[in-house]
Write a structure and sequence with these properties.
Length: 235
């Protein structure tokens, strides 16, 4: 390489990378570093690339945040919901209802500062009694942990993002006379029972207010995102 080429390259590199004063080396990567700008651009991209026209405005707002959690703009095609699920879930949270989560990943993903009434976020999966209870019931720990919700289920907002067995058990409990939650976010993910559990919720004769992602897709991040969107309309 000629001296002139080296000099030109060095000059470009110097001009391309601003000096830093904090002692860290400069790199050639160009990316957005402003968190607020990243959020604005992300939500603008989702709204530009997603057909939200078939959704009520409140469900559309929740769908945007769910898409933000998974990166799949076609998620709206698999949404099924009752007309007032978002309104009823919001009203329940504003009245102080707890958020009952099937796994700690969902509970951890709920942004506490968005909750309107300092709401409790509850996951009973790690309770010491759950393994023995699951053994006696002949079911998964996720399903057995639902039994510990009994006293708090009435009017609660339920978020199931991981375990189809938990969603099936919730429906069984309602059939057995357990208190009704205000709304159920049913988005368990997986290949065994996930699609079926969400179909069962959507078709359940109790008419539970619900929001589901039909099929195999779902997950804890999507469940938590839905709760965060319901808790506060701010993006």
């Amino acid at each position: 390489m000629s001296d002139s080429a080296v000099s030109e390259h060095d000059e470009y590199a110097q001009n391309d990378e601003p000096d830093r004063q904090d002692g860290h080396p400069e790199h050639g990567y160009r990316y957005e570093k402003d968190g607020a700008a990243i959020y604005r651009q992300s939500f603008a991209t989702i709204r530009a690339e997603t057909d939200l026209s078939g959704l009520p405005p409140d469900v559309a707002q929740v769908a945007v945040r769910m898409i933000h959690a998974c990166g799949m703009v076609d998620l709206v095609r698999d949404l099924a919901f009752t007309p007032r699920v978002v309104a009823r879930a919001r009203a329940a949270l504003r009245a102080g209802a707890p958020v009952l989560c099937d796994v700690s990943m969902v509970a951890s993903g709920v942004t506490r500062r968005r909750l309107p009434a300092g709401n409790d976020v509850v996951c009973t999966l790690s309770d010491p009694s759950v393994p023995g209870l699951a053994a006696r019931m002949g079911t998964t720990r996720s399903a057995a942990a639902m039994e510990l919700w009994q006293e708090r289920l009435d009017g609660a907002v339920v978020a199931v993002g991981n375990a189809p067995t938990a969603l099936f058990r919730l429906l069984e409990m309602v059939e057995e006379g357990a208190p009704r939650p205000a709304a159920v976010i049913g988005v368990p993910v997986g290949f065994v029972g996930a699609a079926e559990s969400k179909d069962a919720l959507a078709a359940h004769p109790s008419g539970l207010d619900h929001l589901v992602v039909r099929g195999r897709r779902g997950g804890s991040a999507i469940a938590a995102a839905a709760i965060n969107a319901i808790a506060s309309e701010a993006e």
